[in-house]
Amino acid sequence: MTNEVTVPLLPCASIDDVAAFYTALGFSTTYRQRKPSPYVTLQREDLHLHFFEMAGFDPEQSYGSCLVLTPDVAELHRAFAAGMRAAYGKVLVSGLPRMTRPRARKNADGLGGFSVIDPGGNWIRVVQNAATAPTPPPAPTGRLATALANAVVLADSKGDAVQAVRVLDGALARAEAGDDPVTYVEVLVYRAELALTLHDRETATEMLARAARTALNADETERAAPTFEIAADLTAALR
User: Fold this and answer.
1) What number is the average pLDDT over the span 125-140?
2) InterPro entries from the entry (predicted)?
C-alpha cells in the first residue's frame, strides 16, 4: 500500500521542555497528556514528532535519533535558526538543546545536512533528499579540506566532537602558507564551533580571532562570506 506514514516516538526527561523548544522551531502541539503517562505530539507542516517522558531519564545518555528528508536543507535550517534567535536571542550551538550547521557530508555522498539535538538528547538528523538533490560539489582536496570533511563526519554525524577536535588541531598544526586561506578560515570557525560544543569558550574565542585576522583578497572574502556569517553567530553565543 502507499501513503503510509512513519512517526518517530522519542524519549525525554520533560515533555514540557521538549514542547517549548520545538514551539520555538515552528512546531505546534497537536496532542498532550499527563496521565496515565506524559506524552506530547508535535507537528510542523509535514514533520511529525512524538515524545514520551521517562522519570530519571538522562538526555546526555540518549540514543534517540531520526532522519528528516527535505528538498531544501538550507531553508529549513534558516527557519529553525530564526526561531532560535527569536526565542533565545541566538542560535544554540552548545549544550542541550543545540543545532549544527548545514554541511556536505562525505559519508552521505556529499549531500548536505545538519542536526538538531533537542532537550531530550535526541538527534533529529536533517538530510538532503537524494531524489531532489542538486549535483553534489566535488569531493574536497588538500590536507585542510580533507581534515574538515573527516571532522564533520565525526562531530556532526557521529557526535564525537572530541575526536573531531583532534583531527582539526592536527591539521591546523600542519597548516602551510600555500594552503587555501578560505578553507583555513572554515577550519578555524568549525574548530570554534566545536569548542563551544565542548564548553571551551577560551579556545572558541581564540579560533574566531585567528579567523578574523586571516588575510583574504576580494575573491576569497566573497567565498568566505558564509563562514563569517557562522562566525558572527558563534560570537553572539559567546556573549
Assistant:
1) 73
2) Glyas_Bleomycin-R_OHBP_Dase
